[in-house]
Design a protein that fits this description.
This protein is mainly alpha-helical and about 140 residues long. It has five helices and two strands, in the order E-E-H-H-H-H-H.
């Protein structure tokens, strides 16, 4: 039995060629959905940019918000398109699934901003105080 022992190397990191093929397949399947979701969220950057409490630009929050928008598009894009297809088939047939992926990523931008602001306002509190704040707000 002839086994393929080829590897892909980059510096000190070694990965089997089959793993790289699997990663490429996943990126091909979900990549465009994530990119569209992130593009929709990036457009919202104009309206509500990620800022620190002092008003400076927050790069980490920006990256997290884009990643969450991509994840929302991957998780909910097909569901959103199937609902649109079910309830408004004329619109769904004109639009197609890609604009829906873009629109589904946008709420992640707002949700992650709300969570970030909530944590910013409670900076310095321990887990018990955070749990108490959650209980009081619900």
């Amino acid at each position: 039995m002839n086994m393929n022992n080829e590897t892909l190397t980059r510096g000190n990191i070694v990965m089997a060629a089959e793993s790289a093929g699997g990663i490429a397949a996943v990126l091909k399947i979900y990549g465009i959905k994530a990119v569209l979701g992130m593009a929709g969220a990036a457009l919202l950057y104009i309206v509500l940019p990620p800022r620190n409490a002092d008003g400076s630009f927050n790069e980490k929050e920006f990256v997290v918000r884009l990643a969450c928008a991509g994840a929302f598009s991957i998780m909910f894009g097909d569901l959103g398109f199937s609902l649109l297809l079910q309830y408004a088939p004329a619109i769904a047939s004109v639009l197609g699934p890609k604009p829906v992926d873009l629109m589904v990523g946008a709420p992640a931008w707002w949700i992650t901003r709300a969570v970030a602001l909530w944590f910013q306002r409670r900076q310095g509190k321990d887990i018990a105080e955070l749990a108490r704040d959650v209980k009081e707000s619900i």
